[in-house]
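Cross-posted from the bioinformatics board.
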Amino acid sequence: MAVDVSTPVFEGPFDLLLHLILKEQVDIYEVNLSLIVDAYLSEVDKMQSLDLDVATEFLLIAATLVELKARRLLPGREDVDLDEELALWEERDLLLARLLECKTFKDVGRVFGSLADEADRCFARTAGPDERFAELMPDLLEGVRPKHVHAAYVRATTPKPEPKVDLFHVGAIKANVSDALAELVDELPRVRRITFRRLTADLVDRIEIIVRFLALLELFKQGYLEIEQSEKFGDIDIVWIGEERIPVGAIAIDDYEG
Amino acid sequence: MSPQNAGAPTPVDADIVRALEAVLLVATEPVPVALLSDILGLAPDVVDGLCRSLADAYGEAGHGFELVQVAGGYRYQTRAEFAPYVERYILDGQRARLSGAALETLAIVAYKQPISRSQIASIRGVDPDGVLRTLQSRGYIDQVGRDPGPGQAVMWGTTPAFLEKLGINSVNDLPPIAEFVPGADVVEALEIGLRIPRADDVTPSAPTGDATGGE
Amino acid sequence: MSPQNAGAPTPVDADIVRALEAVLLVATEPVPVALLSDILGLAPDVVDGLCRSLADAYGEAGHGFELVQVAGGYRYQTRAEFAPYVERYILDGQRARLSGAALETLAIVAYKQPISRSQIASIRGVDPDGVLRTLQSRGYIDQVGRDPGPGQAVMWGTTPAFLEKLGINSVNDLPPIAEFVPGADVVEALEIGLRIPRADDVTPSAPTGDATGGE
């Protein structure tokens, strides 16, 4: 098999998600979600020719994951908005369909690998007609002059310029959860209580907000803060309940050691 | 076992079968039935029948070579079991294997062609540019046109070299994609992995999932 | 008449005869008995006997091809009486122009000979095997030896026929390649030239590289 499934190097977020769910059989609550979201972000970052549709799609899927995880972290709510609920199901189904499609082609890829391995063992005859037929062979060099050979050599040996990467639309998405975490640990103990709206007011990109939200969830999970929402659609209050000052390194993000 | 009998079902001169063998021997790529039909002056279905009989005859006689239909034509090739000997002869014959990423991308292009890079990106969830460049430089895919819609994205398709790499005659010979859709067990596992907790679910009291999040 | 019986005089496994057929089928030049002997692990005279029996067997069975001993070794070739069909294939079935990739590979061989396929691959970034075969079958390049180093890679060079077609006496008559690294502007101009094919790009009489060809 050409595909080594045990490799710890994942090819993007779908690959990682499929591995976690199908091979490790974890549910995403157990997973450090920031890892998957970071995988998304680095793919968006890598997009060599900018493709806003694809980038947006990736971010929406990342947002769905965040929402799914948030559901399981935040205290159960008794009043559930039906529209919101349906929308979440729809997004979840979309993500599921995506993973199924990705898995389908992964499996086809494996079948292609076996076909190619089998075909590689058979060698075609390529000797061509022998010299008795030489004078019949069309002269492919008709009209070619030494200068054309020279030009072809220059073409073949000139280094190809690196394609220019145009990322100004995406801006510098350098956001990752570890950085956001460090910022929060620096900021929250001083302010003690702040609304999520204020905490993210200076952020422009939706993805930065998602990342900061993930960092908050991580802190919540580790018991450093409480999250309160007094009314539906009201502001979410973030309350720091941890130590006055903690060294940044003290907060370990659950590292993925796949 | 001899080629004289190979074309038995049709009253074809034995010399025609030998002429067929001669043409196939000098060919440097699979010869389409239409071309053989022109060269031999026989109807395409007769030629196709001759090729099949000849292939069967070689199989029964037990030769080290075989006649196969690949990439839209017939060609002679060595039988797989003699690869060790052939590789001893072809010192430079090492054949690069395709990576998992390349195979998956080929699978998508093969079944969805013509397809744009962004459609591939959204299926695989990764930027496909590097893999597309590799596959194109190895001749397995090529630009087959442009999307008529806005943006005029380059559309990709597979090449005859791809068919030869997989040893198949046509992409139509591939099994329907439905046969590869994951089974109920996989769907169920994904549903569990991505389940939406009901609103009245109790929040896990001690989210110590970190320990299991690793492996 | 099957190859199983071909080696009858010596108690040789039928599979060895098939392996012999497989090696002969992929060979692009006559295979010396000594090389066959190495590959099959049999004494040269046994191999020679096998080849003769095999040639006889093909003759009796009446194939369109034959196994013959020519200068340098054994090879498959078409039987003379089917030459008209082979000629029709050559005239009908072959493309009549050297592709850009083939011309570039030919240029690399011309300037860097003797050169191995892996050296060509590293310059062009693609597997050159198919192109090398085409160029060799046209008689423009040939194997000029083997690398004395480990692996003994086949080394390629241009032929006298190539020089004759170009109307020069020696590869030294080709325009010299400047040992300069092209500046960024040149690279960009080249890139633009490659990206936007001009109408006259398709004929060999005006390849795109002319403007930057350094004349």
